[in-house]
Fold these 4 entries.
Entry 1:
Amino acid sequence: MREGITILMADDDADDRDLTRDAFDDAHLANDLRFVVDGEDLMDYLLGRGSYADRTLHPKPSLILLDLNMPRKDGREALREIKENPALRKIPVVVLTTSDADEDVHGTYDLGVNSFIRKPVTFEALASVVATLSSYWFEIVRLPR
């Protein structure tokens, strides 16, 4: 696994963020996992605005894990902005959400999402998804720099 890779997770649910961090720890993944709490916060981070202006403290992510249903700006709106922005569009975005609605699956792929994953219900299943994601995105795939 390549170290020095930042993963940015946008999710408003503190329990989901904690479980994801635990799943990364459980899988012994050395990636830099960071969190934002909604789509507005995500865009501020990605664009280096406000409290995220210092790129040494807030490095550009190599992968975004995106929940769809968040306050202020939902994941669909944030995804649209990411994929319309030439400076951001190459960052892979993986939707990780409780939704299994066909319109969400089709709609996010239409917007340019790289993968759509329904959040697993158990910690063991989440740990397995995290390990698979990590293997795929950081060992198999070559990411743009």
Note: The first strand starts at residue 6 and ends at 10.
Entry 2:
Amino acid sequence: MKRRRDPLTLDLTPVVDVVFILLIFFIITSVFKKEEVALMLDLPTSNAKEIQIKEEQVFIELSVNKLAIKGIEVSFDSLEDNLKAIKNKENSVIVKIDKKVPYERVVKVLDLLQKYSLNNLALVTNEEKK
């Protein structure tokens, strides 16, 4: 004799399987966040050594007509306010500069960094292809 199942109960095994497969799918297809980048820059190449990036470092990006700090587009006045607010002057300042940026804009950013005694500076370049 066969037992009859209660019509109101559901077998949850297939539901758990589907949820598990969806979870795996989303984990595999997700993009892991590397760093906040606001501007698309064409960096110059260099064969300098690679540095380790830490969370407390300040990122500045400079293009021909835009400026960003920590992944947010700002003006030069706003950049100065952000640099003034930095308490630990020993933190590294990572600067990404597009290779087509006029020298005057680069000097303006470097002057602001010097004004607020942020001297631990690193310029980011692309790796030189051999």
Note: The first strand starts at residue 45 and ends at 46.
Entry 3:
Amino acid sequence: MTEILLLLAGLVGGALNSLAGGGSFIVFPALLFAGVPPVLANASNTYAALPGYVSGAAGYWKSFAAYKNRLIAYGIVSVLFGYAGAELLLVVSDELFSKSVPWLMAFAVALFVFGNQINAALRARGGERRGMKALGSALLLVLLAAVCVYGGFFNAGLGILLLAFLAMAGMTDIHAMNGLKLYVSSIVALVAVVRFALSGSIDWYHGSIALAGVTIGGYVAARLAHHIPTLWIRIGVIVYGVGMTGYFFWDAYFV
């Protein structure tokens, strides 16, 4: 039953990632319910998400190739601070991480709910002020560093944070933004997975079942995307995410 649960969670999570985002809200809790300790479950969730990031970035290559002048700087920041986030996770005890999970989930759900409005507002401001010039490239890289630390520590919500960052950097082409988002996510996840693997912090068995489901679910959903109303999916993800957040708060603080 555990394996079936993880495979189904991976299928649904991968489909959500392709259609609306929020797949980690499904896969991470499923790993916890399967008995994987919290820190290992978080690391294994990052491992399960990695192939989707890489394949997505490859698929968007033509869209963000025009911004190749940013790839080296963004890549260096992603490596250094994605590693820092992964290192931070490894020094946190399961008990402390369990206490932080509901807050991280609440933050990620809030980003999912309000991400479109945040990104629209930041794109408008970036277009008016030419974000890079107004804020300075150094300040933007500091912001990217903070986002990558978050991504290395807790994967859920990373994509929305990256879209907000790119909007602040003055970008308006959503396809290029999605490509760069997946490029950075791929590097952060890869560095984190390598660090987690070296420390023995990935549950390879359960994580690989989830990974297989995520990969298949993402592919199938991408082929069927035009048949499924995105709004309905977003509403379902929000309701589920709020429910899971409430459950984790109850489990962490009231049980």
Note: The CA atoms of residues 102 and 246 lie 7 Å apart.
Entry 4:
Amino acid sequence: MKNKVRERSVLQYKIKYATSSIIKYLTLILGVAVAIIPILVIFLSSIKTKKDYDTGGVLSLPTSITFQHYIDAFTKGNMLSGFKNTFFILVVVIVAKIVLGAAAAYVLHRFRFKGKIFIMTAFLMATFVPGIVNNIIVYQIISAIGLFNTLGAVMLLGIGTDVISMYIFLQFLDSIPASLDESAMLDGASYFTIFRTIIFPLLKPAIATVGILQGVALYNDFYTPYLYMPDPGLSTIATALYRFKGPNGSDWQIIAAGVMIIIIPTLIVFLALQKHIYNGIQGSVK
């Protein structure tokens, strides 16, 4: 009797384990499909001829392959200039985000002063306000200070709207003991020296996380450059493809090729630095 009960329990456990495993893998497969299928559709569209694109389905294989769309997207879309502008904006904004975000987080985490709670609350409330709500006022300010239709507009807005980075640094600072600051102060180090030589180097995982996450967001940003830099010569990599869309139709194969060109650098950077992203997020959670 006991053996039958034990066998039944083992069988029920195996059934539950097998069911949970099937559900788990089906969920993972579904997630992978949701992520891969759109990229596959774009890639197939980018190598199809116009005839194949007009007559075939979105997932149908092309009867003949062409890479002319990639050449047209890169040359006619002036994507080289877009890459230059995007790279310049990325470098300036990310460096400023990291330095200012880390410094602000250090001050708010280590020091006690009047108005600290108000500042923390203001930063928190800022995350709940959609950026599009302030566009009219921000547009007027950018125009008034003479930055409209310049790279400075996007860089200033990118630096000034950074709240998430500061909170990543704040969470990561919890894992750095304040005794390090006290020991350095006993040796005569100033607060600036402590931050520059001790705190900032220890924030490397968080710095990598902020740099990658914010870099991808800036790289893919279309709305801000399109609104504040309408000059075609100031196109970023995200707005360069918009010139292939017109009132009489769109060159979807060229747009698809351009999207693939844009995706490749992001994919390479993410695969190369994904370890730093996970380490930084885990460190901030700890």
Note: The longest strand covers residues 245-246.
